[in-house]
Amino acid sequence: MASQQQANLKRQQVMFLIELQLQYSNFKNTLQQLAQKIGDIEQEAEEHKLVLETLEPLPKDRKCFRMVNGVLVERTIQDVIPALKTNAEGLKQVLDELVKQYKAKQTEMDEWKGRRVEILAELWLPFPRFSTFVSPILHTFGDRST
């Protein structure tokens, strides 16, 4: 009976550790996706900036070509510059929002790690048998118990 309880306890502990690892992986994946989106938006904003810097010194009645919904259309520089500026401002706003989301998710993950490390330290480190198993996990989460 006691061995059955120990087996159940060990199974629960292992499931808890697996759940922690899955939650941690989800946080990391979300942060990685946000970072990728931020990089993409930064690149697109830089492209807009370069095009604006190239077009602004040119005569306003000069024709240029712009891609609109996958179709190349002929416009004048005078027509294109306001649209480019509007798009660049929109990209800046999106970028600012993504950076806020990234920082919020990073803060949430740090708080989550802090709570989980405390729980792991309280539950398992007093038991030498489990400390060798839990110590690497604590290190992964950023051990705050020592």
Automatic annotation (TrEMBL):
InterPro entries assigned to the protein according to its UniProt record, in alphabetical order: PFD2, PFD_beta-like, Prefoldin
Entry's Gene Ontology BP terms: protein folding
One GO term describing the cellular component: prefoldin complex
Top-rank taxon: Eukaryota
Keyword flag Hydrolase: no
Keywords of the record: Chaperone, Coiled coil
Pfam families: Prefoldin_2
Molecular-function GO terms, alphabetical: unfolded protein binding
Residues forming coiled coils: 17-51, 81-115
Family note: Belongs to the prefoldin subunit beta family.
Protein name: Prefoldin subunit 2
Species of the source: Rasamsonia emersonii (strain ATCC 16479 / CBS 393.64 / IMI 116815)
